[in-house]
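PROTEIN DESIGN WORKSHEET
SECTION A - STRUCTURE
LENGTH: 108
TOKENS:
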């Protein structure tokens, strides 16, 4: 007498059919969203900005030897020297707050 071993299936009682139905529904919803998005993109008419042509093209700038760029007016330091401060130059930045200034280093 031989015994027949019945193999157990992980999908019982229509669970496979239910899972396939859910998967097909998700795929269909994804395709519908994609189709709606593509039709919205196609329906919009993008407007491109067009620059007006200049009456005369400007000649290209000649490079300066040395690679330095002149600045007008010349940049000034944020904190002028002591002599310049005595002459009346004002610092560009206010002095640092007292809590951000460290105490002097004591000699050993």
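SECTION B - SEQUENCE
RESIDUE ASSIGNMENT:
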């Amino acid at each position: 007498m031989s015994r027949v071993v019945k193999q157990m299936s992980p999908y019982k009682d229509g669970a496979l059919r239910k899972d396939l139905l859910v998967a097909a529904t998700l795929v269909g919803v994804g395709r519908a969203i994609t189709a709606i998005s593509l039709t919205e993109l196609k329906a919009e008419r993008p407007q491109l900005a067009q620059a007006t042509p200049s009456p005369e093209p400007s000649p290209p700038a000649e490079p300066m030897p040395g690679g330095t760029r002149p600045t007008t007016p010349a940049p000034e330091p944020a904190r002028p020297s002591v002599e310049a401060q005595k002459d009346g130059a004002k610092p560009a930045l206010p002095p640092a707050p007292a809590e951000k200034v460290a105490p002097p280093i004591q000699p050993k």
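SECTION C - NOTES
The chain has a mean pLDDT of 75.
The helical segments are 15-43, 82-86.
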